[in-house]
Design a protein that fits this description.
seven-stranded antiparallel sheet, 6 helices, 30% strand
Length: 603
């Protein structure tokens, strides 16, 4: 309920308005009327009306120089009272543009405007009022002064403010000026104003069939949508106009942006663009689906890559937000209309361990190994008993494309005999015949060790998991990657392609043995390399529209979803190996692999 109901004094104003603004008779010469029982509003005494009293005796007649008044209402549903001062009229349930104010305006027509919105009505003076006591109460000066008040019909305030009543204590401001007698009365269109739109925007990654959305909830990746490098995904952008809100005055333009290089479009398609959703009516929602691919492994970057969407422009409501961080000059939404969703891009063929301490990237302790952790950019392994083993996550390695597994590793206490095992789709499970022996260099320095696997029986089809038996003591792995055979020594080892289709089975739980007491301290890690700078989001551009529309944006038919396919070429790369590679051994277990010369620690 409006303030007129909230305050007793406003209720009295309603009585005063009835007595003094709707019951003025014609004004034949007559002696001054006798004063009826006193009536007060806000503690201010009201002059009483009786037949023959002129409007000027009841109301103030001053006209403010700036044309500013406080607005009140009289009349309304169930009210059909007579008004006589400018000819016989009735309030007619408050359904037309009438007003009081004969003492100030005579029988004129007055343009009444809300200065905040610019909406206006032309009202006809039809009665006396408001009573002096109302204007004195509205001044909040103990009746020592007054505030000019414009008393109008609910029809007028409904158009100007969307309300059917207004009291003197609400201090709602309007401007008023007399207009030409021939000016039609009423409000533009004759109906109350349409309400504003009420828009919201949301963005999300659509679940990949058969894959858990957050399949690797490790450390800061917990709660973040997960994808594998090279994997296709869909980003859904939805804009909704609330039920009961007003329709937009024109098309809703939406901007989008993808973080590069982790999520990148095909050549010729912008990283950021604009889509025309068309106008939105009350309760209407439009959805855009952008199809993308996870282009590059992102674990350890300063912040997760994101997909972003924002409302660029809605005529007269939200104008305009050219980019994600662009300020909005005209915003009736009350907040920024934008949303983003982060994503982590993991690899099935390489692991860099540049994330947080608890981001082991799916590698898990097997027998005789303490719980794993990442320290100084490397996976640290502590063997706690004989025959230790570390199990890798689910992989999708194309055996025909990968001739070796690169291990950037170090150990303490001298060289250690180790073994790499694997399982495939055709031959699940680990077995000695599907393994390669190698040596972990034990001088405490990181070395790039290339383990040849192309000639190992069973290294065919799709390799689904790796296992490393690291030997006793402490060891650390800075990088594990399946690489093509014959990688030139002056180029980084490339990750091998991921075969399709890609089922995403999750690892079974691996029992974790309790660490032995009095374990030796973790060896001093190498200095962590500086994080690569994030290129962020590029400037936006318009995508090719499916149909023409003003401004060259893509216009969407009403009620339809639109699929904007942005296919990404995933250039998969690992870090550069700067030292020459020696030829791998000819057989899988004798002699063992050769050791590449030590790679100096990064500064």
């Amino acid at each position: 309920m409006r303030a007129r109901v909230h305050f007793l004094t406003d209720a009295i104003v309603a009585v005063a308005a009835f007595l003094f603004a709707t019951s003025c008779a014609p004004e034949p010469p007559a002696p001054a009327a006798s004063v009826a029982a006193p009536l007060t509003v806000g503690g201010c005494q009201c002059p009483a009306w009786s037949s023959g009293v002129a409007c000027e005796a009841l109301s103030y007649s001053d006209v403010p120089a700036d044309g500013t008044y406080h607005v009140t209402t009289f009349g309304g549903p169930g009210d059909g009272q007579d008004m006589w001062v400018c000819g016989h009229k009735t309030t007619d349930n408050g359904s037309w543009a009438y007003m009081a104010g004969h003492a100030r305006f005579g029988c004129a027509k007055v343009r009444v405007e809300d200065p905040a919105s610019g909406r206006s009505c032309v009202a006809e003076v039809a009665d006396c009022g408001p009573n002096r006591c109302v204007e004195e109460a509205a001044s909040f000066s103990s009746c020592a002064s007054h505030v000019p008040i414009l008393d109008v019909s609910p029809f007028v305030t409904q158009h100007l403010f969307g309300i059917s009543s207004s009291g003197w204590s609400e201090k709602r401001v309007v401007r008023a000026e007399v207009v030409a007698p021939a000016t039609p009365i009423g409000c533009p269109g004759g109906d109350p104003p349409d309400p504003d739109p009420d828009l919201s925007i949301a963005i999300r990654f659509v679940e990949v069939p058969g894959q858990i959305p957050d399949f690797r909830p490790e450390g800061p990746s917990a709660g973040v949508f997960d994808l594998y490098e090279g994997q296709a995904a869909r980003v859904e952008i939805a804009v909704r106009n609330a039920a009961g809100a007003g329709a937009t005055a024109g098309a809703v333009l939406v901007g989008y942006g993808l973080s590069s290089p982790w999520i990148a479009p095909v050549p010729g398609t912008p990283l950021a663009g604009t889509i025309d959703l068309g106008p939105l009516g009350p309760g209407e929602e439009r959805t855009v689906v952008v199809e993308v691919r996870a282009a590059s492994y992102s674990i350890g970057v300063p912040s997760p890559p994101v997909a972003r969407a924002w409302v660029r422009s809605v005529p007269g409501y939200y104008e305009e937000q050219a980019s994600w961080d662009d300020p909005v000059e005209h915003n009736d939404a009350g907040s920024l209309l934008r949303a983003e969703v982060p994503v982590d891009v993991w690899s099935r063929t390489r692991w860099e361990f540049e994330g947080s301490e608890d981001q082991t990237e799916g590698w898990a302790p097997g027998a005789s190994v303490a719980p794993l952790r990442v320290f100084g950019g490397a996976l640290v392994i502590q063997a706690t008993g004989p025959d230790p083993a570390v199990l890798g996550p689910a992989t999708r390695i194309d055996a025909a494309a990968a001739g070796a597994v690169l291990l950037r590793s170090r150990a303490l206490g001298g060289d250690a005999g180790a073994r790499l095992l694997f399982e495939t789709e055709l031959e699940p499970g680990f077995a000695p015949e599907r393994s390669v022996a190698f040596t972990l260099p034990g001088d405490g320095t990181f070395h790039d060790v290339e383990v040849p696997v192309a000639a190992v029986p069973g290294w065919t089809g799709t390799v689904t998991r790796l296992r490393i038996d690291p030997g006793t003591g402490w060891s650390a792995f800075d990088r594990i990657a399946a690489i093509p055979a014959g990688t030139p020594p002056d180029q980084p080892p490339e990750s091998v392609p991921v075969p399709e289709p890609v089922p995403d089975s999750m690892l079974d739980p691996v029992p974790v043995p309790e660490p032995e007491p009095d374990s030796p301290p973790v060896p001093e890690p190498r200095p962590e390399p500086a994080a690569d700078p994030s290129p962020g989001l590029t400037a936006d551009d318009s995508i090719t529209p499916p149909r023409s529309s003003p401004g060259g944006c893509a216009a969407l038919p009403s009620g339809e979803s639109v699929l904007v396919s942005i296919l990404v070429i995933g250039a998969l790369a690992a870090r550069s190996v700067r030292r020459p590679r020696l030829a791998p051994a000819d057989v899988h277990d004798a002699p063992p692999n050769r050791i590449i010369e030590p790679w100096e620690d990064l500064p």
